[in-house]
Amino acid sequence: MKINEKNLCMFATSPPVDLEGWLSKRGEVNKNYQRRYFVLKGNLLFYFEKKGEKEPLGVIVLEGCTIELAEDGEQYCFQVVFHGINNRTYFLSAESQDLMERWMKALTCAGYEYMKLMVSELQRQLEEIEGTKDATSDKLITPQPPPRRHNPFNRPAPPPPNNVTPFEGEKVITTSSDGAVTTINQKPTSVDEFSFIQLHEAFERGILKDLTERRRLNSVADEPLIVL
Fold it and tell me: pLDDT, tens digit, for every residue of 180-222?
């Protein structure tokens, strides 16, 4: 169809565009192919006599049509076939196989019906994803508290060193019938029965004994081997 509307002309020449380039178009009356510059914007396919012109020669509304390969015509030829009341077919020819496939794919995806199918498919996929999430959420395991960490301080006290003298308990002084005085050291039966003072005194005696022995050995080592 021929157009003269100013707003549509401005839309045809303003960026952005989906696809543009040279194609050969067969005339409706004159069956010869003429080279035209095509611009695809949405579902509107504009064609110009020359690239860069401000007003297109016409526009093809890509609704209610199919894009098919043409059996007759030029090489790399395809057709835009309308069905229904406007039983019109546009024959277009590209310059190469790659360009022809590119234009056919772009024109097939430009119609409203194709967009509607794509939206429906995306909606279906979204519903499947949401349904999967709901089913997964029903099977969620109740979170358990983390395992208690081992406390290195919760361990029994080490046994006393071998060089430490046995623990001495409290001293008990008893007097016999004949007047003799006896001192008895009562030793605890287990480590748990020792008081802090008893433990401290026991380890202190062992340490003092080690220090005394070390000092004696050092003094012997300092004595000369030969005394004049």
Answer: 555 555 554 455 555 666 666 666 677 777 778 877 877 766 6
The band of 164, judged by pLDDT with boundaries at 50, 70 and 90, is: very low
- Name the helix (H) or strand (E) containing 14: none
Q: Round to whole Å and give the CA distance between 38 and 96.
A: 16
Contact 184, 174 (CB under 8 A): yes
Rounded CA gap, 46 and 107, in Å? 12
- Angle at CA 108, nearest 5°, toward 59 and 98? 95
- Residue 39 in contact with residue 17, Cβ under 8 Å? yes
With b for 16 or more beta-carbon neighbours within 10 A and e for fewer, the 51-76 pattern comes to eeeeebbebbbbeebebeebeebeeb
Question: Residue 125: how many CB atoms within 10 A of its CB?
Answer: 10
Among residues 110, 100, 119, the alpha carbon closest in space to that of 63 is found at 110
Report the candidate in 72, 113, 110, 111 with the shortest Cα–Cα distance to residue 93. Answer: 72
- CA pair distance 1, 118, nearest whole angstrom: 29
C-alpha to C-alpha distance for 213 and 111, rounded to whole angstroms: 104
Report residue 176: phi and psi, to 5°.
-80, 180
* Residue in the block written with tokens 């016999």: 176
Bridge partner list, 92: 25, 78
Stated as kind and residue range, the H or E segment containing 142 is none
Q: Which of 57, 46, 43, 51 is nearest to 12 (CA)?
A: 46
